[in-house]
Amino acid sequence: MNNRPLVSIITVNYNQSVVTGELLLSLRAITYPNYEIIVVDNGSVENPDHLKESFPEIYLVKTGENLGFAGGNNFGVRASKGKYLMFLNNDTEVLPGFLEPLVEMMEDDSTIGMVSPKIKYFKNPDIVQYAGFTKMNPYTIRNSGVGYLQPDNSVFDNISQTEFIHGAAMMVPRALFERVGHMPEIYFLYYEEYDWCEMFKRAGYKICYHPGSIVLHKESVTTGVESPLKTYYINRSRLIFTRRNFSGFQLIISLLFQTIISFPKNSLVFLLKGEFKNMIAYWRAYLWNITHLKLRL
Questions:
Q1: Contacts of 280 (CB under 8 A, 6+ apart)
Q2: Residue of 164, 30, 181, 170 whose CA lies nearest to 106
Q3: What phi and psi, each to the nearest 5 degrees, are found at residue 194?
Q4: How far apart, in whole angstroms, are the C-alpha atoms of residue 130 and residue 154?
Q5: How far is residue 200's CA from residue 89's CA, in Å, rounded to a whole number?
Q6: What are residue 69's phi and psi, to 5 degrees?
Q7: d(CA 221, CA 122)
Q8: Cα distance between residue 227 and residue 235, in whole Å
């Protein structure tokens, strides 16, 4: 008799049904006996219905518009029933036994609020993308990935508490999703999972890394070309994170650093490289924060 808790696997699709299908194919091989799969179509232009035809075991739900990373995942939670919520980027693939270690960890320790597996690169599976995160630098609002771009070895095989989970693969108990709050949707892209971790830590829960679970991510090992879209959202979100998670003197120092040092430096770099569209996107990110002094939660 199966007495394992139900896990809701949630993934968001946006005009990438082929990639999403590859994830779903890998999920057919998992060994955990009690799960459901929620595929959220986040306002795709292409028709995603063939995903349901090819994978009748999934629940396909449609937002009708692009709600962003957080909004799409939150939408999926509303269609789910599991005790645990397993959020997976659609450009990941999983190993057959990836769920068991995460569920067992959650079942054994109710003080854990979030856990991410070891994440490696799909095309370079001997290279680590994620084995935890360092603290956020209070001035630059950047952090570092433990193991990032390093060959996988026993150093990264220890279960540990960490500062942040990884948005590509993260498990959260439904009860805490409801108690602590959903993923903040103000970001749209970037920093939302960092902010979510801060919410969980303030509520007294631990953020953990479990190397016994492995997920492969199709993100390139080499740094991709910056786009105006990425430049806009990552800088807009960095400032939002600062404003939502710092206060008093620390907030003042951080904003001064980003305005007096980072802003002119990065603007000059874009200018010298001739990346005028990125420069304008960068300015727009700052302008958005200036014109939205009162943030919604």
A1: 228
A2: 170
A3: -65, -45
A4: 14
A5: 21
A6: -65, -50
A7: 9
A8: 12
Structure confidence by residue, pLDDT tens digits, 237-261: 999 999 999 999 999 999 999 999 9
Q: In the prediction, which pLDDT does 221 show?
A: 46
DSSP E strand stretches across the chain: 7-13, 35-41, 59-62, 84-88, 92-94, 112-121, 128-130, 160-161, 169-173, 206-217
Question: Which parts of the chain sit beneath pLDDT 50?
Answer: 1, 221-224, 297
- 35, 99 in Cβ contact below 8 A? yes
**What is the pTM (predicted TM-score) of this model?**
0.93
Strands 160-161 and 112-121: unpaired
Asked if 213 and 106 count as a contact pair (C-beta separation under 8 A), the reply is no
Checking 268-275 for CB contacts under 8 A at 24+ apart, the result is 275/226
Residue type, 121: Y
Q: State how far Cα 177 lies from the chain centre.
A: 15
Q: Rounded to whole angstroms, how far apart are CA atoms 270 and 284?
A: 14
CA–CA separation, 164 vs 146, rounded Å?
11
Question: Vertex 93, ends 91 and 99: CA angle to 5°?
Answer: 125
